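Subject line: Sequence and fold of a protein, written as structure tokens
Enclosed: The protein record, placed directly beneath this head.
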Amino acid sequence: MAIFGKENFSARLETYKTRIRDLYASDETPWIIGYSGGKDSTATVQLAWLALRELSPEKRTKPVYVITTDTLVENPIVSAWVTRSLEVMSETAKAEGMPFVTHLLKPDIANSFWVNLIGRGYPAPRPKFRWCTERLKIKPSSRFIESVANKHNEVILLLGVRRGESIARSQAFERREQSATHEALSHHPDLLNTLVFTPIEDWTSDDVWMFLLREKNPWGYNNKDLMAMYRGASEDNECPVVVDTSTPSCGSSRFGCWTCTLVEQDKSMSAMIQNDKEKEWMLPLLKIRNELDFRTESARALEKERRDFRRMGGHLQYYHEKNGDIQLIRGPYTQKARAHWLKRLLETQKKIHNDSSAPAHIKLWKLISIEELEEIRRIWLVDKHEVEDLVPKIYAQVLGEEYPGTQSSSSDLFDDSILELLKIACDGNVVRYETARNLLAIEQKYQKMGARRGLFTDLEQTVKSGCFETEQEALEFKKKEARISKVTTDEFAERLDPSAN
């Protein structure tokens, strides 16, 4: 049920503002507001700003940190909106003497989406392997919150979450209320010394839009432009002014990473492209996202081909199908597949930069940074022993310019001609070639080290990883192993209970 109405809007709003002012002035604990640039977080920052602006300057002493986490793969339209919003917010706060301090947080390069997918070979995220959220979103913000909490002994985290968003969100509110220490505060379930305040928790989506459209954005941004962005991300291209509970709002629009495969399709980006010809330059991004998806039968077949039959450490794992057959659990993307994804990403970047319809700032936008490319290159060369050093070659081939990273660390032992001879010696068998190459690379690495501790462990792991030249050989071995295991288990059970058979 909506909180606001035409008659009581001002009085209701004053109640929320008073609640925020009283809490702010009650202690010296700093505040942190999570800001994504969406309607709910915008309403939360705006509500806090309007409330604190009515305090005298000498009472606006403790900081209110506004943090945004840029995953480096955000929807580019939303990312540009949020980045500029933070800049304007910071400038206005300084000019007006407001306590708001903005921070744009990013994941460590080693945890970025492309370093994990292209570098380490993690498959595109899925519900049972959701490796992205923790690395890209949770860790950067948690690290910042913990640093503030450690410095001040405690911190209050303001979140623009609402009970009505979903059943899961309502259940989270119920759990939080059980740990409440104050009428408005509860303990964060994971972060120490962090209290949570949700000032718009009982608002509806309609309340949010009414507030944003009736109250002018205090740091100078235009909330009508925000509504237009939501409208453009809705399939029916509508975001009506709400007049009653029967009128649908555009609150269902969701923005996030353009690479996200946790959802069946990127409805917001698809709608943006469909509703605005000027945004058709994003089509290549949507194509990559759909190529990464794994849901269709053809996509699953292609992914099976692109992923190693061995797990990340080179060992084998299997599962039983419903009919009892054994299948190997796929591992990371192969070297060939990872090279393919890097090439596709750089091709897409080049295509967008050459698109005359793309905005000027997008023509400078990098889908992948040089720092990420350098980390991918390090993983391929050092961790995976892929001495072909493909990153500079792919970069130069696609973009037609010299790779701007560091010079190659490979020795003459692994020049292209020698590697071609090694492939010929291995009769073109990929596993045999990779095993021989890795053994040579490991030996060379330890030659340069003062201590050779760990050499034999690395050699043993590499040999074990390469002991099956084909997937079929590995599968047959695992089937035989499973049969032996079953016989042994049945014999043991019979000894315990001879009457069982």
